Structures are given as C-alpha cells and as structure tokens.
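Researcher: Here's the sequence for the chain we discussed earlier.
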Amino acid sequence: MAENNNTIMDMVRRFAGADPEAEDTVLEMCYRAAVAWYEAAGVPEEPENELWLFWACNLAAWMYDNRGNADANAAVPVYIVTSVHQLRKPRTQSAAGSSAGTEAGTQQGDGAETGGSGSEENNPEVSG
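Model: Thanks. This is the structure I predict for it:
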C-alpha cells in the first residue's frame, strides 16, 4: 500500500508541477481533500480506476496551486465539477415503481441537493 501511495503522490506532484523536494505534507493534504470532495459528491475513492485517479490528481493539483487563496476567484473550475457526472456511478432503480416519471423525479431531486446556493461551481453535488 505504501508503494501505491508513493506512486499516487508522485503523480499529484507531477500534476501540480511541484519539484521533488516539495513538501509532501501539503501535497498529501491536497490529495486527501480532493478525495473527500469527490466522496461528498457521491463519487467513492477508486485509485485503481485511471479516470478517477486523473481527476483526483487534477483537483489536488488545483488545490495545491490555490492554497491560501480565499477570494471569490478560488472557485473549483467547472471542468472539474463536471467530472463528477463522468465518474458518478449510475443510480440503480428499485424493482418496484421504476418508471420514466420516477427517474425524472430523481433527476429533479439532484438539482435540489445544491441547496439553492446559486453557485454550483463550488458545490460538488451538481445536478445529474
């Protein structure tokens, strides 16, 4: 597992453009925050999935580049937010009551999960 973690952190370092002597603690924190961000959006950690790993490293690098930036321009880029749609597993429909109307209702429910904050850019729970 430690070797796998070293490989992942090397990948995060490359995405971030950080030199080999960059502080591992900060990079690790950015990676763990990226994993937590995706999990909050309903995308479980899957380091063996190359597509998931690409997006998690991409987000970790963005977080590393923007560390300490607390102004409004620090919103997670839209291209990363939309990756949630690509990575999220399709919802399974229950055997009883699955219909086009039920599915449409579920999709509408996703939009309500954003809480009406007006900013889907920072909210990983974007509508599906």
